[in-house]
Amino acid sequence: GNSVTQMEGPVTLSEEAFLTINCTYTATGYPSLFWYVQYPGEGLQLLLKATKADDKGSNKGFEATYRKETTSFHLEKGSVQVSDSAVYFCALSLLDTGRRALTFGSGTRLQVQP
Amino acid sequence: DGGITQSPKYLFRKEGQNVTLSCEQNLNHDAMYWYRQDPGQGLRLIYYSQIVNDFQKGDIAEGYSVSREKKESFPLTVTSAQKNPTAFYLCASRWGGGGNQPQHFGDGTRLSIL
User: What is the DSSP string of B46-110?
Assistant: First the structure.
């Protein structure tokens, strides 16, 4: 089956520190990969996506590269801010399944301290 | 502005009662989804619909029902058969065309038991 594994949180960093949140996946086909962010009490917002090997998604200073050889899609940011504190979800979607629903990781909570 | 509206934001259910969560989108998306989120966990798919008047069970459909009479609306009913309904419920929609389009999420409904 399909699955997504994320590093457990919480991840606690000081402002301006470098962020990495690891994400690896298992898929029966060739997935598209996504990072979503969830702020307290809200729904999920798309942060970035990548649809084929070696694609790099980027947005708001966050980046992730689709690595087919290691089945990974790690999220990085060079300098985090307090406002980045949220829960981050890695997810995959397969086009060859009729439903095209997302398979999510369990989420990683990021806490950034001033 | 286009988006997904979920209501109510908070909902309380008594024992033996059915409750309905509303989801409306004005994005002209074909596909709509319902997910359940439990604390510290990722999202799990309850039901999805690719077109009007058609819907399919997801991974945890037992105790839930849906309808899709209009393109913009996809209400979810939590029935009395769902013995553990306390969770955060998220509705999402997606353009049904080709490619790898992401899902867009509403702000969620938090359901609790009285």
Answer: EEEEEETTEEEE-SS-TTEEE--SBTTB--EEE-TT-S---EEEEEEEE--SSS-PPPEE---EE
